[in-house]
Amino acid sequence: MKVKLAIEALKHLPGTQFICCSSLYSSKPMGAYEQPDYVNAVAMINTLLEPLDLLDQTQRIELEFGRERKEARWDSRILDLDILLFGNLQIKSERLIVPHYGMKVRGFVLCPLAEIAPGLQLPDGSIITNLVAVIDKDELTVLV
Question: Is 124 a catalytic site residue?
Fold first, then answer.
């Protein structure tokens, strides 16, 4: 499974300490395209990399696994690594938005994030467990 291999690749990023990873979660794909269910996880790392350097490294991993950047936003992809948070920084650039713009409404992000950081408070003051309590989790399955 490519997601497990990608998690292993994160463990070897330069200047980075891998802390932990959530369970794997299966979810229905976003958008109108016919494609297989997604497999999602959230990893926690400590890094000496700057945010854009970390983005470069995660995009390098995606390319190594065969990711092709297509124009259709919700098109199928082999691997998609997102930077959800970078400490308490708030970043808005052409290449990177942190906190990730959709994380507060996506169960496939919030549930694994709450699993590894249940006491987390987002930079805007939102509490992760409060966000998880109100999202739809019906189409989210923890993989064994």
Answer: no
> pLDDT by residue (tens digit) across 21-53?
999 999 888 765 677 888 999 999 999 999 999
Domain that holds residue 125: 2-142
CATH of the domain at 46: 3.30.70.560
**Total structural domains within the chain:** 1
Half-sphere exposure in the Cβ direction for 67 (13 Å, CA):
17
Choosing from 37, 53, 60, 77, the catalytic residue is: 77
Phi/psi region, residue 136 (left: phi>0; alpha: psi -120 to 50; beta: rest), is beta
Active site residue 77: yes
Note if 136 is an active site residue.
no
Please write the tens of the pLDDT for every residue from 98-122: 999 889 999 999 999 999 999 999 9
Active site residue 73: no
Catalytic residue among 80, 95, 136, 138: 80
